[in-house]
Design a protein that fits this description.
With 394 residues, this protein is α/β, with parallel strands linked by helices. 33% of the residues lie in helices and 29% in strands. A six-stranded mixed beta sheet has the order 5-2-1-9-23-22, with helices on one face. Its cofactor is FAD.
Length: 394
């Protein structure tokens, strides 16, 4: 009897587990392993960080959505010993496998930035998201006693998807907290090294996002290269100048970038930022029994010869093909190459605004229509990872 071990119950791992449950040969043992008992909709973490959603609104119990032929084991993965086809854990006995699917998700990346870990708050999971809102709320509440203007300043470092969606959500949060604690204006600033935000969108859509955020009080600083984080300040330079400038805040949020799981590094994989370059079949060149998908995978785009950007949409597409290739291998059938076509790109700008570019048919959406498209897209993802049970729980 073949033994398939799936590491991680995020979009990639849950997607692979649910697909293998349907297509793996009868008698195959499928074990899904995660250190938590709940699946978190990580694309919604920014809502928890802004205080507009609670943790249980963006998560559900993993066991509750698993088919009967998938076993769930709560354990914390420490490394893969791929020479001996063994997974090692910090709190569980080692486990051997015939095939392993690695989908352990992401962690916030500080890029070696001085002070980033000590003086800013990263957004990578439920506890860090809850901490961010706690800090923002406490600082604003504290202002009347402290009279420290930095208590009313919020700085978001990085204007990628996470940063932009958090900024959009903070618009309403700032209004609510301002009224609740009867304080002066709350200032929210985005600090981004790139010359423009959201370059993956059509220029008109990106400009719509800039205009919307600016109109709602968000200050967007592009071309600002962060040099270090101090206890209450982001230190940066502009353009070609080496002159250091500071923007002060007691609520500094770090959304500059992510890398794959540190298990990749601990296992000795050849990887960059903990992302393993996989073959066209989504497995590892020298170890075809190891499939790496989601945030831990560098799946190359043949058009650009660069890794595809990691998204929930990509993770689910990889999960489906990896599962099919494992099932094909078990039945001595030919495998299929992974070919990816994005369905589109959507960014939220708060609960009722957004921008969207849909691939087929090609559509560009703004405002509330884009927000509806985001909700529909999210529910599609939720159905793929949790089925009807997951959708009902949401």
């Amino acid at each position: 009897m073949a033994h398939i071990v799936i590491l991680g119950a995020g979009y990639a791992g849950l997607g692979a587990a649910r697909k293998l449950a349907k297509i793996a040969p009868a008698g195959t043992q499928i074990d899904l392993i995660d250190r938590n008992t709940k699946h978190v909709e990580s694309i919604e973490l920014y809502q928890v960080a802004a205080g507009t959603a609670k943790a249980d609104e963006i998560s559900f119990d993993i066991r509750s959505v698993l088919p009967d032929n998938v076993n769930f084991i709560q354990a914390d993965v420490s490394k893969l010993d791929y020479e001996n086809k063994t997974v090692e854990f910090s709190n569980h006995e080692p486990m051997t496998y015939d095939f392993v699917v690695v989908g352990l998700g992401f962690r916030s990346e500080n890029f070696g930035m001085e002070g980033a870990d000590q003086y800013s708050y990263k957004l990578q999971d439920i506890p860090t998201a809850e901490k961010i809102y706690e800090v923002i709320n406490d600082n604003i509440r504290n202002y009347k006693q402290s009279q420290d203007p930095n208590d009313l300043n919020i700085v978001v470092c990085g204007a990628g998807f996470t940063g932009i969606e958090l900024l959009g959500e903070l618009i309403d949060t700032a209004k609510i907290l301002k009224a609740k604690y009867d304080v002066p204006e709350i200032n929210i600033t985005s600090v981004e090294m790139a010359p423009q935000i959201l370059p993956m969108f059509d220029a008109d859509l990106a400009q719509y996002a800039v205009d919307f955020l600016s109109k709602n009080g968000i200050k967007i600083m592009t071309g600002a290269k962060i040099k270090k984080i101090e206890p209450n300040a982001v230190v940066y330079t502009k353009g070609d100048s080496d002159e250091e400038q500071r923007i002060y805040s007691n609520s500094i949020i770090w959304t500059v970038g992510v890398s794959g799981s540190d298990v990749i590094k601990e296992s000795g994989f050849n990887a960059r930022r903990n992302r393993v370059t996989v073959t066209d079949y989504l497995n590892v060149e020298d170890h075809p029994d190891i499939y790496v998908i989601g945030d831990d995978s560098a799946s190359m785009d043949p058009k650009t010869d660069r890794p595809l950007p990691t998204t929930g949409q990509l993770a689910l597409a990889q999960a489906s093909v990896a599962a099919e290739n494992i099932a094909a291998d078990l039945e001595n059938k030919p495998q299929q190459k992974f070919s990816y076509q994005s369905k589109g790109t959507i960014a939220s700008l708060g609960p009722s605004h957004g921008i969207a570019e849909i691939t087929k048919p090609h559509l560009k959406l703004k405002g509330s229509v884009a927000s509806l498209a985001k909700r529909f897209s999210f529910e599609q993802v939720l159905f793929e990872v949790g089925g009807l049970k997951g959708l009902r729980k949401k």
